[in-house]
Amino acid sequence: MLYDIAKGPVRTVIRAVWRPDLRGADRIPATGPVVLASNHCAYSDTVILPALIERTVHFLGKSDMFSSRSAAGRIGGWIMRQLRVMPVDRAGGSASEAAIGAGLAVLRSGGVLGIYPEGTRSPDGRLHRGKTGVARLALAVDAPIVPVAMIGSFEAQRGRRFLPRRHPRIRVLVGEPIDAPAIARSLGDAERAVVLRTVTDAVMDAIAEMSGQERVDEYAGDVKRRLREAASPASPDARRS
Length: 241
Known about the structure:
241 residues, alpha/beta, 45% helix
């Protein structure tokens, strides 16, 4: 009930202040389990996207997004909770399995699960290699994967922790559903790892076509780690600079 009360005002504020342009929302099935797979360019993606979609979208969000002690951070965490963003620890290992379990619970109840195949925000605005969890989830319940492209949010939020600028205008493009089970069947007796990677790459291809982002055959998390190491005072690159 609280979600139903909160979503309307949040959507109204977002539309009035940032005027996002949503296109293709009718491509999201009206009923049944759906995996909504989006690129991830800014913190605001996790608020703007579920606020604009008519169906309830359950996003998996990093747990540290909900632990800020600042006033703005607490408000942001409250808003995300009302929009059904679920805090999960995505550090790896058993934590990753917990995230998969939370996502499956949403899908098995016939809900819409929002997921970022890149696993984390893009550190440079490019589209990085997708993780195969999106395929695992869809295939486990025979759910379609609907690709989504967030355009402009990276530039609008560059250098800002929470609130994006009003310009450039953020665009949300929803693509045609991808039939993950059909892709799996077309591969016959291929190993599961091959099936998962093929489905995931099909999703990333669709997102790239809509977003126009440069593709990177490297995980966003690895890129972030390399950038942190290069910026560290102890790193050779930092010492040379």
